[in-house]
Design a protein that fits this description.
It is a single chain. It contains 9 helices and 22 strands. The chain is an alpha+beta fold. It has a 6-stranded antiparallel barrel with strand order 1-2-3-6-5-4. A 6-stranded antiparallel β-barrel has the order 8-9-10-13-12-11. Strands 16, 17, 18, 19, 20 and 21 form a 6-stranded antiparallel sheet that branches. Strand 4 (about 145-150) and strand 5 form a beta hairpin. Helix 1 packs antiparallel against helix 4.
Length: about 375
Amino acid sequence: MVSPWRGVSLGLLAICLGFLQSASAQDTVPPPAQLQGSSVQSTIREGFRATAKAPVGESNSISAANAKGTAVGLPSELTRLYEKGGTPRSLEELRLLEAQHQRIASAAEACTVSVKIGPAEGCGVIITDTGFILTAAHVAMRPGKVAIVTLPGGRRVTATTHGMNRNVDAGLIKINANQNEGRPWPHASLGSSDHLVSGMWCVATGHPGGYSDRRGFVTRVGRILSVRKDALVTDCALIGGDSGGPLFDLAGKLIAIHSRIGNDVADNLHVPVVHYDLSWDRLVSSQAWGYLPGFKPVLGVSGNQTSNVAEIVSVTTGSPAADAGFLEHDIVEEFGDVMITDFESLKRAVADTMPGERAVVWVNRGGQRVKLFVEIGRAD
């Protein structure tokens, strides 16, 4: 496994040289928006204590003194860059910034994990010593799924998906009990969404393209481009497989989770940690709700709302259902791993999927069981 900060040095130097040739980032990026729900430091820790059978105490601390977390001491010379962003003013400040990124990367390696559910791969970050993992909703997919979590060094453990707020792409997973010989899990130090402003430095970690024994986890350095209620926008160089991984501030505290990865480096969106705080009780109780704008799952059928079976009344031309071979009067009996009892239960099963997800569907067609394969579409 390579050093966790391999590539940080040259990447940081290139970033800083580019910034030093231009105006300060605060003059070139969109202004920040005020985030709401500023109770991360109280509510989320209380939620952890209430849901974990053993209180985690100081391991939930957001202070830099938390030796078990990812928070690291911040040199006073970097206070300006931490609070307001901007570019290093000297070679010495650049070296201090580089060393700080390396410390964060070293601490983050232990709690940045790869998550695999079926054939799909993403990332997550452990946030309590009892094994709760924050990830993206589209990585967790739906509550009750079995996940394979790959830890540093390649060790694999099983986990179970819990709730997901699809409105912002926030998901929760928990490592199943009795897999660490009674020892606490290494975890991130929780940060806050309150202090974030455009131009602040950030460190993204993950497993781009999936876990690799030879490569290990990967660190990227970037800056916050804008702060929105629903998302942070950064210029960290993320690719497929990074979704669900953590984003840290310059003090090594977790501030967001990777969500939507764009084609352009400036299109990357992250879920602010405040949303996990606001939805904590629902996430722990395995509720799933909402969908991302433009990502509402669609099957393309209408049905009999009063029947005690899920009978298809019509199939929309050109829809995923039409492409899969659904016919009028088909009675849907199974959708993926869900038993279908009526049309409402079919609607709920479709709503529990993600656009692009493939599902096996069993229908009763004139007394014969027929197996169909459908790829879920999305609403325009």
